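Consortium newsletter contribution from the modelling node. Members have asked for a concrete example of what our holo predictions look like. Here is one, prepared for the nicotinamide-adenine-dinucleotide complex that several groups have been discussing at recent meetings.
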Amino acid sequence: MAAQVLDGAAVARQIRSELAERVRSFEKNAGRRPCLRIVLVGDKADSEIYVRSKLKSASDEGIDASLTQLAAQSSIEKVLDLVRTLNADPTVDGILVQSPLPSSLGDGAMLRVFDTIDPAKDVDGFTPVNVGRLVQNRAALVPCTPAGIVQLLDRSRIEIAGRHAVVIGRSDIVGKPIAMLLLHRHATVTICHSRTPDLAATAARADILVSAIGRAGFVRKNFVKAGAVVIDVGINRVTDAAVASALLGEGSLRHESFLKKGSAVVGDVHPEVSAIAGALTPVPGGVGPLTIAMLMHNTLVAAEQRQRR
Ligand code: NAD
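And here is the predicted structure:
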């Protein structure tokens, strides 16, 4: 039997409609809308697409959002100066600097940005203060993708407490924070990464398997225990025809679209996993929409908290 599809897009719509109500009542009480400022350095096509969908979502929710785009060759000092200006602006509730930054800004540029953003306006939840609060289980601004995954599990009535969760990937933006959130929800958590020996066997012990590595179709059937819940965070653009036909299936609508466009987005999880997992998030339409919904949630929370100060 094919795995239950966990419809992240539908859950995201539900979260966003709840938020729209809260945004209206914030506006009524505060006399202004929550305000999100996005900073994009350069003009990387994928980043521009992500930023556009964040701006659209904000406007749908009644959040006042706008973009400041800096040239790709801007210095890190210029980026940090802009962040400081937004920190000091009382009308701004949330600041998001789109990653990745151009490599010309040097290693560690993103960390310097996180060191500079005011934690009260840190809607990504990546500043050291908010990461510390997350570890101590008292964060108000939780990284969006991991927060969205927990929302999806909860709203799909998937038990977390007492279960074994395996997270593949240890990035600061997904792997580590989702491991921490699942731990706080009383899962037993194993984190795997590129140097984990016998990764498939470790993954196959999971009741809840989260893959966040960025490798198309990496998680195969032998990584998955029968009936496990599989959360596919990966967003991988495939351009190779052989890989596309293996992952999309010749003759499928998505394969047809690949043949027209020359590329398709797939997850980390191979489609064969659907035959063994109990539940599975699709890519696209799984974790991605939840990430944006939680960004809107964090913007509202930041605005509410700043209003109460
Ligand atoms: P990253 O590149 O920062 O980290 C990748 C992690 O995967 C590393 O910890 C690395 O150790 C691990 N890894 C890489 N190759 C591996 C292998 N062969 N075996 C085991 N572990 C391996 O990635 P990230 O920023 O966490 O993103 C991961 C994926 O999730 C990407 O495809 C990204 O596009 C996607 N993503 C999606 C969303 C969303 O909203 N759906 C949000 C953030 C990231």
